[in-house]
Amino acid sequence: MRLFLLLFIALTTSSLTFGNKILIPMDADGQTNHLKAYGIAFAAMKEGPVDWLLNYRGGSFGMTYSKKLEKLCNDRGVSFTNLKDKEYTDITKEIKGLKYDGAMVKLEKPPRIAVYTPLSKEPWDDAVTLALTYAEIPFDKIYIDEVLSGKLENYDWLHLHHEDFTGQYGKFWSQMRGQQWYINDQNSAERAAVKHSFKKVSQMQLAVLKKIVAFVGSGGNLFAMCSATDTYDIALAAEGIDICETQFDGDPMDAEAQSKLNFSKCFAFKNFTLVTSPYEYEYSNIDNTNFRRVEKDKDFFTLNAFPVNLDIVPAMLTQNHTNSIKGFMGQTTAFRKEALKPTVLVMGESKGQNEARYIHGDYQRGSWTFYGGHDPEDYQHSVGAPPTNLAFHNSSPGYRLILNNVLCPAVKKAAVPTVVVNEIPSKNGGKPIDEDVVFGSSESKIRIETDPATSEIKIVMPAGYSEKTVEVTVTGSDGKQTLKQTSNAKNIRINLQNLHSGVYLIQVNGQYAGKIMKD
Q1: What is the percent of the chain where pLDDT is above 90?
Q2: 481-488 vs 21-24, strand pairing mode
Q3: Which of 458 and 243 is assigned the larger pLDDT?
Q4: Fold (topology level) of 413-518
Q5: Looking at CB atoms within 10 Å, which of 22, 93, 226, 326 has the fewest?
Q6: What three-state secondary structure class fits 66?
Q7: What percentage of the chain exceeds 70 in pLDDT?
Q8: Residue 429 has what pLDDT?
């Protein structure tokens, strides 16, 4: 009887000790291993939805309690708190309260992740591969064969290893052409080109890029760092143009290559100038490496704040326990602001250097994110350098930005219109350019059309709308209201002529209705 009583007391105490929810805090003082916490959130999605508590204690995670998840947190050294339902409900109320610019989004399903990389590359050659491996998030390695055979449709998120999509072998020729690793990489690329019936490596790389563009256009999420960012756009702009000198493809480059570039094909960059010398370790003036003047101990960039309750994507991508991130270099360190298209969203920047470090944009039904630099915890990574041991950097703010992108596709998508307003007439005749799929919760049937000839937008309310007037608010990507107008519900035309180029969010009667990108 006494033994039974002791067991009963123990079981009762246990039931009182453990609640129904697990809260994984992500603030500076509350979490011992921020990077492993992402792996816990990823694993928890296999059992059910996970709450991402945006702007609450550094972007914390909430999930239903289970012994399995508790053990996983303990085994991986991730700090967590066990909460009763009421305690957790109080937190969600705080987040949703008017005084708090926060939101709670559901991570519904673990995204299928691919890293575009040669199998010969070691994990420490790439920060994303390091981050995924350390966080224990599963991913597949794919490369040329898989992409050209259509395997991208099996994935939701794609990271581009530090690839050179221009066909210039990383522009290492001047310094490294005698190294065996360089010779092996060049031979491997040339064999792959022959295998897929291309005369040049640059032609094969363009074919790969077109597959990736289609992946993003159909709803995929693209992430790239270092040289995979600018060479991606350079190669797209140079379609059909030889920009490789004899050292790279056996014949001279097109002498008029610069004037033939088509910047409209680029995701992020415009009006850049190519660096054509094979002796120079640079592709173009997109990269700010040769222009910046900053000492290592003063090299930081700042994360920008975004209106969480409108366009939720940049809010997810910038979750962190600090808004000041240590700078780090790469072949492509940062992006000169002069080279950015006006529709690019700058999420992290060094204003003193006039450079963007972390940028984002939409393309048709998908999105892309470019992150400058090679390794957030290796300031000036060199070829053959030892791997970064993330056990010593398990709360790295720079690495957190990578893992934010990994989780982003797990949020349920809803369709809202996105239109581009040009200041010159276009072939679209005033109709929406496309209907983009972005993250959010709006089920609105409101349609936004654009008249490029007049820089006006027309808002068409759903059939059967009974109110006589409509209030339209235009907000910048920084959350600042730029325009407010009340109109007759049957004739809603908003003139954007006085707005600067950029990304704007449209609210109709207080409801988020879509994006306007003024180019």
Answers
A1: 65
A2: unpaired
A3: 243
A4: Immunoglobulin-like (2.60.40)
A5: 93
A6: coil
A7: 88
A8: 35
